[in-house]
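ERR on first pass: missing label on line 2. Operator R.T. fixed the label and resubmitted. Corrected input:
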Amino acid sequence: MTEGGAPAVEIRGLAKHYGPVRALDGIDLTVERGSVFGFVGPNGAGKTTTLRVLLGLARSDAGSVRVFGGEPGTMRRRIGFLPDVPGYYSWMRADEFLRFAGSLFSLDSDTLEARIRALLDMSGLGGVSTRIGGYSRGMRQRLGIAQALINAPDLLLLDEPTSALDPIGRKDVLDMIAELRGRTTVLFSTHILGDVERVCDHVAVLDHGLVRAAGPLDEVMSRHAGAQRVVVQLDGDADVLAERLAGETWVDAITRSEPPASDGGDVIEIATDDIPRARRRVPALVAELDAGLVRFEVRQPSLEDVFVSLVAPDPGRAERRPAESEGNAR
Amino acid sequence: MRGSIGMFAGFGTLLHKELTEIRRTWRWLVLPGLLLFFAVTGPVGARLSPELLRSVLGTDANLPTPTYLDSWAQWTKNLTQLGVFVLLGTLGGTVSGEVRQGTALLVLTKPVSRTAFLLAKAVANAVLVLVAVLVGTLVTWALTIALFHPVEAGPLMRATAAWLVLAGLVICLMVALSARFSALGSVGYGFGVIIVLSLLALWGPATRWTPAGLMATVVHLGAGQSAPVLWPVLTTVVLMAVCLVLGVRTLARREL
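pass 2 clean. output:
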């Protein structure tokens, strides 16, 4: 089956070894059509290897991979791909490279020329007549995204698409990805968690070749983010306040953090599930201590909190087996 | 299956890219430039070599009068002794260079067969060599006519045609090697193969029946002598096909 209700990507028990190194250790993942899927993990987690197997560039040692229900290598007409460091023929201009890339998809000339114009505009390379060899890294990345879209793909695979871009370039790329939602399935790997929070509706956290968590972004956040945090900054020493808070039953944990450089005073973070009580008790305790409250802020859990809780080294994590990880995303 | 990739998918586009790349980069200068140099210096050197030798050895030296065959011999010697090694040097990174630069990754994730990717490179380089050798041959022929008229062009044409077959083998060999090894590794192995063929050429049966005889054949034909042609050419063509098949299979299995 290559059509019907098949997901855009379906991975089951995928394993890949490089000698003694287990790059992928039996991952399961489903990417539904039309979703914008963030694939996050630290360096060496297996993100790029997974994408390479999806593209038919690398063979798996075990497991199965289906793209729109078919073998990965046979679905290249429907896939757009941007590697982390795209390589080009330096003697070509951007329009020439897009024309070359489009010709490999056997696009008719009218369609191809229209897409080249649109993609050059989108990537901000429309008026650039120099050869690619003289491009900055950001320009090369933008051209990479343009060439990945030349065939109007059903599935867009992006490997670290924003890592080389300045803030404006990053915003442009993320806006472009967001615009594709519902029309094109986007699977992009990144370690910039803010990008995922900004545009993704689904996420998978990969670490040491295992999927640690996967699913709709809000579900993963609520399941793994842990306690909310209250940030308190005083105009002086916060040790006494920390001691008093340690005796409160609604406090899960207290950590010290660095104050902003422009401010004096100590900053503490309180982990708690009882925010209303924190709102009442912290100002009261500060008043009892006759201290000045500079800041009181309830910080919502972020994907970074999820990431740190799932990926941060702990003694037992290395021993976990695939069955203990979550796997599926729907 | 919908979306399956044909064996030669993308060949036309890739060949066009390769030929454009040759035209727009340094590649069109190296081999054609060198062959043009051979084409000009060969006839002139052949014509002037007695005078040069007399000036070194003294006016009484009894040297044979040069003929157009000396010009043909100079051309064919240059092709076999230097042309082959220039080919080895310039083709070492044919495939591996694209893998290293990441261009192969962008190209081969599109609906393109790896067979077409490799064959386009072999064909484009064959076209480059063919055009460069044709131009060089015409130049050396024209200069030789000017310096030695009349001339018989048959030995020149036969020797050059035989060298083109040898060049085809070098192209196929280097394309295949570069599908597996780095540029430096490919040049090293290619050089080794040429050395082995040269050593094999010292053994009579190998000269008559195998590609090892082709280098000597080129030189003999250029000098207007007879030499075994049929079997060395046939076995060379077979070896070219073997190289291409092995190259295609190597690239097909290679993880990128």
